[in-house]
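ok so dumb question maybe but i'm new to this and my supervisor (M.) told me to 'just get the structure for Amidase domain-containing protein' and walked off. so i did the thing. is this what she meant?? sequence i used:
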Amino acid sequence: MWKQPLQVVKANVSSNPRTWIVIGLSVAGIVIVAETQRRKRRSRAQIMLREPFLEPRFDLLPFPQPPPPAARQPLASLTFAISDMSFSLSLSLFDVKGYVTGFGSPDWAGTHEAATKTALVVTALLKNGATCVGKTVMDELNFGITGENVHYGTPVNPQLQSHIPGGSSSGSAVAVAAGLVDFALGIDTTGCVRIPASFCGVIGFRPSHGAVSMIGVSPNSQSLDTVGIFTRDPSILHHVGHVLLQLKSVETKRARRLIFADDLFQLSKVPTEKTVQVVTKAIEHLSGYQPPKHMNFCQYIASNVPGLKGFREESVKHQNEIFTLKALSSVMLLLQRCEFKTNHEEWVKSAKPRLGPDASDRVRAAIDSTHENMKTLYKVRTEMRAALQSLLKDDGILVIPTVADPPLKLNTKKRQSSEFNDRTLALSSIASMSGCCQVTIPVGKHKESPISISFIAFHSVDKFLLDTVLDMYSSIQEKVSIASHSWPLPDTNDNLDVSELLKEKGNAAFKGRQWNKAVKYYTEAINLNMMSATYYCNRAAAYLKLGCFQQAEEDCSKAISLDKKNVKAYMRRGTARESLLCYKDAAQDFKHALVLEPQNKVANLAEKRLRELMG
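this is what came out, is it supposed to look like this??
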């Protein structure tokens, strides 16, 4: 029945070529419309990922300003956001009256009613003049440190768009970093404010545990949770901190003692010129600071927190003190799991929520956890607080790197992220398990990634810490600017005879167990001849004895770049990387050593040990 119309169309087309033009334009129009729709869909998806706020957006206006001559409210004209955690007396986490809190999960939102009250912390901010402009995206159920959320999308890190923003309070960090609000709130349990603050290049503050009211905030882990603050401006942090902590405006001044945890900076791949030296130079011309001190923090904790001994892995008990922090982070995660189970097991079993892979693994581990060793976990927490009190008292500030690694790329494979988690949580466990206050301060960039340092002060001296940040911040940023524009000058002296003599002196010092002197001689040899793999490899051996694992890794990498068959360099780099908790890379080094020397028993045992750790 269609033959005749088709023949008519063909006849018309053949007799009138313009018909082809009409058909071509029609097809082109269809293609353009389809492409336009496709781009709109992609644009909407990108907006969902970029937008840190959840719908529906809302404004909570501040309480009325007092009439003159009363003083203006301290937070007047400032805007803030809150993580999607109900700040209310219902079972959700930062709840706002009249709104359902999602807790990062659509199933949570679907099984809970709108909040009937607004949390005290939010009310306090409104009373002091601030305006709340909405809730932000977070990791599902406050479990995770990447900031990725399979349901609502991942807020895009303004500093590094192809990398994670950090979590769990990812949306709040992004909103501040993007300049959308003046400050934001999140819940810091295992680093959930400090980590995204570091990755997004903003200030992040974890107050002392229990110092900010948690009334209206449903707990993830009540022994670890505290309300945290993000901002770009130290003066805003100072004002908001005073409101939430209900601090007195006047306090007795005391000299500040800065203590650098040198062993923890070994975990970081950022040169100390951009971290330790920046802070050291920043206080040189400031009054009220004692000369800085340096310490091996892990060694101190190993000696003063005896409860950790039972949590060190049998396979690594022969290793260095860095594993003490890994044990501490293990205790922190066990405590979080047990308390999460107590708080939310009933809901998890009844609602059977659809969770992303990472969140699902963590929730399952929490529900399967037992309460048999809870007293032991609390004992470690008590010992940790006592150890920090003895070290810091009321005038000490511990200086550490906030994180060990730059932010991961989005959608990183699970094995890589597992190693990243171990190294990151090892550092964040210090304040979480001691209850101390900690502030993350951005200090520029390294290889395009934001970097930061953290100040930790003892529990309940939050005002002292906030005053210190306000006092030091501009000086730190000035030194950051100077460091970012300075370049070391290469030494071109290549006197090989002298360098060999210095190498032999270094060897003699090494045999005499004078590790620092050995490093000195090897360094002088390297300055004279930068093309000798042996000099770098020998200095790496001395660094390993001193516990300077980052420097040892760098020296071995340099030695390998000069000599691809240097077995000792692979062995020593593998040892350094294992000590830095980089198990996958360490295993690769030992495997490479076995390729070059198949009968190497030490490499064979190390590779098997690492395979067990990763398995």
